[in-house]
Structure formats: structure tokens, C-alpha cells
Amino acid sequence: MASCQLKIYHGPSECRPHALSKTDAGESRITVSLGEVLPLLADAVNNRRTWLDDFDDDDITMSTDLFEVLMAYQYYRRPSA
Questions:
Q1: What distance in Å separates the CA atoms of residue 66 and residue 72, rounded to the nearest whole number?
Q2: Dihedral Cα 45, 52, 76, 63, nearest 10 deg
Q3: How far apart are CA 47 and CA 50, in angstroms?
Q4: Residue 53 lies in a domain
Q5: DSSP class of residue 64?
Q6: Is the pLDDT of residue 2 over 70?
Q7: Domain membership flag for residue 77
Q8: Which strand (E) or helix (H) includes residue 12?
Q9: HEC profile for 18-61?
Q10: Can you give the pTM of this predicted structure?
Q11: What sign results for the dihedral spanned by CA atoms 44, 45, 46, 50?
């Protein structure tokens, strides 16, 4: 019986380093661009990945510009608007 050779995937080698930090409560945080995360989240939502539910109560931090645009989008996409 041949033995299996397993490898650990560490992500793409050309990946730029991310800014790691800790909150006042000692929680680890990482700063990434929205453009890097959005396609992955959109794919996970479209494919109904159940692991997204694990993060329903997590807080995120965003610029006020992005928040205002999202709130306007939410308002204008309503069927009654």
C-alpha cells in the first residue's frame, strides 16, 4: 500500500502581507481591502455556505462613506421605493 503525501496549503505565494493588530480586549484583528474579501464573501453567499452563519454576530468596521452608500442602496432597492 502506497503512503499518501499530504501538503499544507498556505495560500498564494504572491499574497501581500496584511496588517495584524490586537483590540483593547486582546482579540486578534487583520486589515484587508474590501476588494480582496468581497469576491470571496459573494461566492460564499451565492453558494449558501453554512459557515457564514458562524459570523452573523461578528462586528465589522468600515468607512462612513461605504456605510452611507450601503444604507442608500438598502433604501432604494426596496420594492416599495
A1: 10
A2: -120
A3: 9
A4: yes
A5: H
A6: no
A7: no
A8: none
A9: CEEEECCCCCEEEECCHHHHHHHHHHHHHCCCHHHHHHCCCCCC
A10: 0.62
A11: positive
**DSSP bridge partners of 29:** 21
- Structure confidence at residue 73 (pLDDT): 93
What is the tens place of the pLDDT at every residue in 28-49?
A: 888 889 999 999 999 999 999 9
Q: Report the alpha-carbon distance of residue 2 to residue 9 in Å, rounded.
A: 22
**Owner of C-alpha cell 462586528:** 59
More confident residue, 79 or 45: 45
Above 70 in pLDDT, residue 51?
Answer: yes
The C-alpha cell that represents 76 in the structure block: 432604494
Residue 67, domain member (yes or no)? no
Q: Number of folded domains in the chain?
A: 1
